[in-house]
Amino acid sequence: MLESIKGLVVTLKAMTQSKITVEYPKQHLPIQPRFMGFPALTWDEARDEPFCTGCMVCVRYCPTQCMSATMADNPKFADGESHRRKIIDQFEINLGRCILCGICVDVCNFDAIEMSFEHELGARGRNDNRVDLAQLLEMGTQYQAQSGWEQSKPNGLSPNEKSIRDAAIKTADSTRIESSEPQDVR
Ligand code: SF4
Ligand code: SF4
Asked: Which among 8, 15, 22, 89 is most buried, taking Cβ atoms within 10 Å?
């Protein structure tokens, strides 16, 4: 009898405590400012084009080789509207293979890629987690709006940032998966 009463008291206590969990996926906890979700491409409002020039540095250093990119001549450069001679033409990330390491962000010289708040991944098909340039830019502009993002490297990397980037590159070199087909992101 005494044990039953003790059990009842524990139950009543638990019922009056405030909830610390939420009913996912109906409810979501707020995203913390330094949360690192999937990488996304940023948008240069001033020139109305992506920051990404398609330089391929991030593609080369991605340890899981889940990225691919191609560059094109930037027509806005010829018109004098942009300082970027080259601009991203196609970009794809297979988010199903991304390990959220952030190396792509560290090695980018142009503020063109950020770890966004996007973190939910659910797909039925093998290739349904691939996101293209338009989707990456949409994720990026959403992140820029939500986080109050500001360009941090308008003149390229500072010496300190360069040393951080070099360390990231060394880490990437040591963790890179050897592959005979480095651009195959399937
Ligand atoms: S976060 Fe890491 S694994 Fe994901 S795309 Fe960037 S470099 Fe590749
Ligand atoms: S995101 Fe940065 S490092 Fe990657 S291709 Fe674009 S400009 Fe180059």
From this structure: 89
